[in-house]
Each structure stands twice: as structure tokens, then as C-alpha cells.
Amino acid sequence: MLEKLVRDALSKMVSDKTQSLALTAAGMGSLLMGGKLSSIGLFASGLQGLEVEWRKAHPDFQGGLAERWAEAIRFYDETHQDKTNRTLHIVGIPLIVGGTVGLLLWTPFGLLWFASAASFTAGWALNFVGHAFFEKRAPAFADDPLSFVAGPVWDFQQLFGGGRPAQAAAAEITVH
Fold it and tell me: Which of 31, 70, 108, 175 has the fewest CB within 10 Å, making it most exposed?
């Protein structure tokens, strides 16, 4: 219900892609306000809309899941070329993932929940600083919703895979 209200209000003002980005952000904001199921619903609705918009923007894409995943990893790598931005992401993304898990697990507004909220917020701050001041381009998820998953996988590859080229790493991870 909340996502319908938000989408209806946004539909009068902005594009479908902007609406989907706003729903995704609203999901993250709701998580920081103690919401759990509503957060997941808003976030999932936003991601679904972003994927629809991605497919509209890439009408020639005909691949399956494996090809779509390889494209997401390639795009993520392409949009993270600055060394400082990459370092900030290697620190920031684990903070976001850990913070998200904690926000979903812990009772809202308890000590562990606040620690998770701080981790989540610090991770996003590092990523946005990296894009604003070093990469000088929008975060990848603005153009490819799979970046929310590709980012942590890419980080893992950078940390433990020796920073292998995206194409080789994507080929190893593809789903058959």
C-alpha cells in the first residue's frame, strides 16, 4: 500500500526511472526508520521498475540470466575506474551489506540497530563521496539495478580474486 501511494504521488511529477530510483531510496530510508517489510517492499518495487527501465534502454539485449549478469558485472567495472573510488567502495559496500543485515535483524532503535544504522550510513557516504569527487559519475545502480548485487560480488573479486578483469570474473560466476 505504501509503495502504491508513493508511486502515485511520484507519477504526477517525474519519469518512471526517477520514480523507481525514489522507491529504492524510500526503501532504504524506511529501513533507517525501523521498517522491515515495508522497506523490502519499497526497495523491491524500485528495483523491479529499474530493471524494466534498463530493458527499455537496451532493446537489443536478448540474453538470459547468465548474459544479463555478465553485463551487470561489466557495467559495474566500467563505472568504477577511479582507484580512490574503488577503494572507497571496497570499504563502503561491506559496511552497507553488514548494516543492512543488522537493520533487518535487530530490534529498531536498540544499541545493535543503531550500530547497524551507522554502518549502513557510513558505507553509503563513502560510496557517494567516491562517485561525486573521484569517479565523477552517478552510481551504477542509477543505470543498472543489478549493481546492487554486482557491487558486493565485484568487491569480493577485488579483495580475494586479485582484481581480475570483469569479463573473466563474470564468466566464472555466470549461471548456466
Answer: 175
**C-alpha–C-alpha distance, residues 127 and 34, integer Å:** 23
Residue 114's Cβ-count burial label (10 Å; 0-12, 13-18, 19+) is middle
**Contact criterion met (CB below 8 Å) for 92 and 127:** yes
Helices (H), the chain: 2-11, 16-32, 37-57, 65-78, 83-105, 111-129, 147-160, 166-173
Cα 134 to its chain centre, rounded Å, is: 19
Instruction: Determine the pLDDT at residue 163.
Output: 62
pLDDT at 37: 95
Decide: 76 and 89 in contact? Cβ < 8 Å. no
Specify the pLDDT at position 10.
63
Virtual torsion, Cα 104, 106, 107, 111, nearest 10 deg = -130
Cα angle: 63, vertex 140, 30; to 5 degrees: 110
Cβ-contact 67, 27 below 8 angstroms: no
Residue 82 has pLDDT above 60, yes or no: yes
Q: What grid cell was written down for 46?
A: 524500485
pLDDT value, residue 176 = 43
